[in-house]
Queue: 2 jobs
Job 1
Amino acid sequence: MANSGEQLNPGPIVVLSGPSGSGKTTVVERLVAESSVPLAKSVSATTRPARTGEIHGEAYYFLKDAEFRQKLDQDDFLEHAEVFASGYLYGTLRSELHRAWTESAWAFLEIDVQGAMKVMQQYPQAVTIFLKTPSTEEFERRLRARGTETEDVIQKRLATSRRELEYSGRYRHVVVNDELDRAVREICEILKFEETQFHAG
Ligand code: 5GP
């Protein structure tokens, strides 16, 4: 298939997962800006409506349900999942891998645990990183401190994070986001190490 970039030229993939509230978004931004290993953030497709300020093609490709399903039928997705508690579909387009690799960068996927498991099956060599908060209590504290969620949503997020934590042992690396700068430094070191492995093997 013309858009199955990874079949033409397989390159490196890094997958980062972690519950919302683990500080993932900031870590992702910092890594893209600071990592010595070039990272091209994959833009996911989703059926979730755009939030204020989110731009199509930057935050996500916002698709109607039928459009998403058509792409599924065409085998355009490397992985997709209905993300816990959201009810919306999210997926990584194969064309995003191709885009990264043609830029000689690592394809950087920030996806949920279900998607990460699917990537691992297809690319056992993918560098997988699970970002977690120091403790469940700290996670709950951060979630409440944001002040943006209702109690119902908070309870759902906590349940999701407990479910996601069960998968953390399947990742190659687990990083505790106890302090932002330290966590970013640790991931940069992991990527540097993995880069030497990639070129060696
Ligand atoms: P949000 O709707 O808050 O932007 O993201 C909700 C969740 O969807 C996050 O945990 C994020 O990791 C996950 N997600 C985003 N893109 C993808 C994707 O392409 N595939 C999968 N499986 N999960 C995704």
Job 2
Amino acid sequence: MTISSEWFAAARRRIPGGVNSPVRAFRGVGGEPFFVESAKGCRLHTVDGRSLVDFVGTWGPAILGHAAEPVIEAVRAQALRGLGFGTPNPLEVEMADTICRMVPSVEKVRMVNSGTEATMSCLRLARGFTGRSKILKFEGCYHGHVDSLLVKAGSGALTHGHPDSAGVPEELARLTITVPFNDPEALQSAFTANPGGFAAVILEPVPANAGLYLPEPGFLGTVQSLCRAAGTLLIFDEVMTGFRLAPGGAQEIYGIHPDLTALGKVIGGGLPVGAFGGRADIMNHLSPDGPVYQAGTLSGNPLALAAGLAQLRALEAGDGWNALEKAGAAFEESVRSAISGLPLTFQRIGSMFCLYFHEGPVRNLADAIRSDRERFARFFHGCLADGVYFAPSQFEAGFLSLAHGSGDLELAAGVVRKNLREIF
Ligand code: KE4
């Protein structure tokens, strides 16, 4: 019985599944989760005294690494000034100005407290602005646990085998149409079959909740063209890719300006923050200026914004994205060498990656779910036993941070090579 096991037994008595978010329960790989006592740089320190090289990074926010100095200092200083006011505060203006500067498609922005709130608010705003009810999403994309978006969803919903969650009324789910990602013909057909039009099409521009696969050349442009022709709003869910793939996120890389964007993770510096924004003429429909209601007690919380602003400033000061690309390329080279000749596919963009136990290529959900989950689980646990922590599901992406040094990456690549040799 490890100390983590004791904590997990206690957790299961009071917390459903012993976790506050399903993917943490290790159901996708078997076994029990470890409990973390502290984290610093690219490492987690468990209650069992283990130190693990962490490629999850609290699912994206820890882009500087855990407990990065500038973020800790900003939180410490702000905490002494108070944790929350429930009134406007200057940090909200600084964050709004920063987001609009870094993501030019965002002319106005509102802070919320999670990615789910961000996408949920985008949907309600799109429905209020267009007067339409139907939305379209892509199979395998995950946008948080919004009722309308828990239809063929990815991430934990996929991992646990209920991409269409119980509890979502059929009347509501019927308003959500889904098509495969990277399938322009299917998308065109969906628009044709729904002449009344959609309020919005929402997608992860780089889907990273069924592993990680990339939009094929021209696909995002096609999505945008079809939306524009139909008077449908285009929503990019950049909760994961925003401020990580580039200062302006995936939309900067692919040169597509969506009508609305959902954001989160990196802008919270590890504390609970989400945001949504876009065209001013759409955002002005939000209460108190407009008829679409949206609110949040802790939205714009000064402590969380102090953390997020410090993280963004540190990224900009050191051109963190260039360093992340270099680290990603080096890691990719090592992993590709380790998987050479094996029925595996490694896919990467910037500091996000996925090793599929599938010959590949992986272009969409249908490809991803053909991965060998049993071998993935053995790989996951083998690497964990050797001190390297990858996401506990084949249907999650891995993340590098600025704290992953060459030594850490070489160690991890060696562990990958060793465990693959034992499996194949
Ligand atoms: P949250 O509500 O969990 O803050 O964000 C939801 C969300 C929205 N959009 C995208 C693209 C996301 O990736 C997420 C959340 N990501 C997962 C990881 N795949 C969070 C991990 C978890 O559910 O515990």
